[in-house]
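In the lab's daily routine, each protein ends up as an entry in a very long ledger. A line of letters takes care of the sequence, but it says nothing directly about the fold. The three-dimensional part falls to structure tokens, numbers that each stand for a local backbone shape. The outcome of that step, for a single protein, is printed below.
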Amino acid sequence: MSQKPLRSLIVGLVLFLGHPDHSHALTDAEALEDGMTPVESHLMLQMASTINPDLTKNGVMRAVRSHRLVIAINKSSQGRDAQTLTMFENGSEILKVKVSTGREKEELAASGRRYISTTPKGYFRPQKIYQDYLSYTWQAPMPNAVFIIGGIALHATTKSHFSELGTRASGGCIRLMPSDSLFIREKIMETGRGSRPGQFEIVNESEGRNRIRKNAIRVDGIDRYSGDLLNEKIISWDTVVVVYEE
């Protein structure tokens, strides 16, 4: 590939890091629970996604042709499909809704560590599913949370954030209307052992956190940047979540 996009990315990141936004003074715990990514990790991930540029709508459609359930999230800030989630089942579109992804800005923690409120790009398998999830840092409910990497989850947002859907507004998670988040969570569970009573258990992990258990199955792992299946089995769901920007 041409070295020009890579050089442009490096120059842009250097300039970006030279101008931190000091308007937020979060603790490290608050930043991480809000789904933010440390700057140093963000730089490495941006480099990797530039070298492996298949995170586009073409990559989404390739996944749609190959997988039972695909959830595509366009984190772009502008364009017809910006800030949307589109779900495909067996090759057909079954849902398209507005979401809020990360603010995509640098934010300073009280410790002095810098974070990016970004929604990471890539191909992901769901890691954990919750019926109810409470953020202890923010004392905020996150119903129907589906974690895809670290502290990044698809989840229902609260009424105070409904008006922000369709814009970049989160610390990194993908915010949804409650009814949409429930539909998505149940569809993902259907690609495991099922969403009907008896096909899963709800386990109270701690106050406000009720996790879905005994529902995941063995599936092929997936390469985060190419979307290729890996020669290894993981415990997850037969679902692929694609976060891209186009």
Notes: Helices lie at 4-17, 28-33, 39-51, 57-66, 178-190. The mean pLDDT is 85. Residues 100 and 163 are 10 Å apart (CA to CA).
